[in-house]
Every structure is written in structure tokens, then in C-alpha cells.
Amino acid sequence: MLKIFKFLPFCIDQIFYFKKDKIKLQVDKKTIVEKNVYIRKKKRLGESIHYCNLKINNVDINKFLAKINPNISGLGMLFVNQRKPGPISNEIILDAKLKCKKIAI
Description:
alpha+beta, two-stranded antiparallel ribbon, flat
């Protein structure tokens, strides 16, 4: 069956929408609980979740950590401020590269 794709082009196009979902979490008795819980629809093929643009008390996580100590840097998806929906891996790498340059690794 797969031999047919040698002759016929085959591709999958993934479309990213600009809709953002926000989740509010709260620490309650040493446990993290979700506030304003709503029923999430079942994910469909091609949909993914990127936990990015993390804020604590409405303050960007990077600024929050810098106030504690300017030598603290966070790397990974939570610390990336993704402006456009879509793949996030490149943004994680670029953010890490920028942060590592600042501390001269």
C-alpha cells in the first residue's frame, strides 16, 4: 500500500488558530488546584497543548524570577512568550540560547 506514495505526493497540513486557552491555578493546602474549571472538549487529531507564557500573579515568570534573584533563569516551554500559535521547539531553543549568552556559558 505504501508503495503508491512513491508516485503520488502525500502531505499533511496542520493549521494553527490564534485562540488561546487560559488556565488559572491556585495553591491550596500545598496542592495546586484549577480555578474557574470548565469542561474541555476532547482533543482532535493535530491539536496540541503548549503550556507557555506562564505568569504568577499576572507577572511574567521571567520577570518574577529576576525580582527574586537576577541570576535565576528558566528554560523550557513555560518560560517562552510565544506570540504566534504553532510549533514551539524553535522558540524554546532560541530563548535558551539568548539566556545562556547573557550568563556567558
